[in-house]
Amino acid sequence: MASNNEFQLIGNQGRLQGFTNLLGKENHLWWRTSRWWLQTLIFLAISNGILFMVIGIAPKMENPPGQASNTQADGSAQPLDILGLTVFLKIAGIATAIGVAVLAQDTLIGEKQSGTAAWVLSKPVSRSALILSKVISNSLGILITMVIVPGAIAYLIIYFIAGNAFPILPYAGALGMFFVSLVFWLTLAIMLSSLSNTRGLAIGLPLFLILGFIIFVEVAPWTADFMPWSLTNAVSATQPAMAVSLVLGQPIPTLMPLIGSLVGCLIFTMVAIWRFQKEEF
Amino acid sequence: MKNTTDLVIETHGLSKAYKNVQALKSLDLKVAKHSIFGFLGPNGAGKTTTIKLLLGLARPSGGNGSIFGYDIQRQSVEIRQRVGYLAQDPRYYESMTTRETLRFTLGFFFKGPKNKMEERIEETIELVGLADKADRPIRGFSGGERQRLGIAQAQVNYPDLLILDEPAASLDPMGRHDVLEVMERLRKYTTIFYSTHILDDVQRVSDTVCILNRGELAAEAPIQELLASSGNVLFRLQTRGDIQQIRSLITNQTWVTAVQVEQSDGRADWQINVSNLDIAEDQLLGLAMSAPGVKVTGFGQSKYDLEEVFMNLVGGNNHGKQ
Predict the structure, then answer these.
(1) What is the pLDDT of residues A57-82, one digit of tens each?
(2) Rounded Cα gap, residues B153 and B322, in angstroms
């Protein structure tokens, strides 16, 4: 039996002990399994499929009597490119957020319940490294499969159908806002998974918040300042989604939803780490 | 801070309560370097709980412990850098292959030349007999194959301490034999702390045994000492003739603690417990032969096996109780 002298011992890395290795494993689960193309296909079909139907097929169909076409606040018809952008961000902002919540709850609860978390934590690994590796790898997976790929396809669909190419940088910024909103739901679901082993809570609360945003902004409009709803959705008749305003070069009245979402991501991750330190296996 | 003594594991009053259940009650444990330490007990005795406390997977309710001189609560990562662990019901990432799992495991301990890392992985795969399944996803593995993988991942880093929770439980007799052989082979490199309820295995490979019952330490001793401890040496005697003569001679001796006789067809089969092995060896046969009208047809010393010691200590009445 050979000795360990031929290797270099991984020394004390504190709260990041084992992080690189764990991140590699999480990335493996994203990119070396069917997950990446399945997620990409699902969200291409939902976000880009609906976008194509709305701006590629629906305008060619005659409006039934009594049904108005899409109009803006001043009553004029909404240009196809703006309609496309609005629809894409709205659909993606809700459907993809739901997908993220479903995906995220399993990443921690699944490991706690199956016993793989206990196995990994029997190795020289810090618990904070485990949570951080999940947040970062899933963020990367979400960024590529649910934001960049569908976002690029949406750009092309709008360009070819509406004939207008949005400026690249503001469009990338809009996708960045969309990404922040998804990371918000990701970290929220991971935090809830650390607090409880109940999948219902980890999926249910994010779904309630995603789908119930219209009620929340009606009842307590101030909540929109701390939640990511307005990043991709219009929360009032006069104010389009922040991401849409950014692309169109319109003024953005407040950055609070963006800041609130980023702070939320940070708080949720910290709570998840704090709670997971106390977890017993 | 490293411990300078020869003890690898040491606990003082280690205890764990889950809600209203006291899973472990004030355990004092000492495991010497390079021993194969058998941790015995019926289901629910607290064996797995103890292991989880040692590895930092659960927090003690009381007491303390150290491994290699590192505190089990405050220096758990330092401990786990030198430990290999096989869980009772090991679970791995199903999409990974054996090779990928071992590569992942080794990556927590070392970095170094890739070819050397791969050599170590290959050697470990060979050791546990998984060469033909090295590149298949784990999801198709049988219980025995998972257990072999478990042993492989526990020892791929050549740990100073191997903690194995029921390592042979789900294996067939051949698999069990292989596991015990691996353990014996590793003895000179590492300390092995393993829990089991398979007493034959313990008797075969362990040098020290701890018996846990209902969360309490029932006994801890080198196995030979445990087997030969007071009252546990047994002599067998076969005679023909009048048993009354010989019975009174034997029972009158102060070093005889118990006598049992079974008779059939004029033959008697005696089981005689003694408290002093040396005197019994010197005098017992002579006493039997001196009894008038008695012929001794057989004589020998036998010891309780571990199962008898175990049953005496745990009372045989709480299997399966939590």
Answers:
(1) 877 775 555 454 566 556 566 788 99
(2) 29
For residue B241, list its beta bridge partners. B294
- A to B CB pairs, distance under 8 Å: 94
Q: Distance (Å, rounded) from C-alpha B29 to C-alpha B15?
A: 12
Q: Whole-angstrom Cα distance, residue B274 to residue B256?
A: 4
Distance separating alpha carbons of residues B73 and B59, to the nearest angstrom: 7
Q: Which amino acid, B233? A: V
Cβ atoms of B200 and B176 closer than 8 Å: no
**H-helix or E-strand spanning residue B85:** strand B83-86
Nearest CA in chain B to A126: B77
Phi-psi sector, B194: left (phi>0), alpha (psi -120 to 50), beta: beta
The CA distance from B132 to B134, in Å, is 6
Given a contact cutoff of 8 angstroms between Cβ atoms, the answer to whether B38 and B196 are in contact is: yes
- Write down how long chain B is: 322
Query: Which residues in A lie closer than 8 A to residue B149 (C-beta atoms)?
Result: none
| Spatial separation of the C-alpha atoms in residues A88 and A172, rounded to whole Å | 14
Do the Cβ atoms of B275 and B257 come closer than 8 Å? yes
The DSSP symbol for A239 reads -
At a CB cut-off of 8 Å and minimum separation 6, what does B318 contact? B42, B44, B213, B214
Here the ipTM equals: 0.84
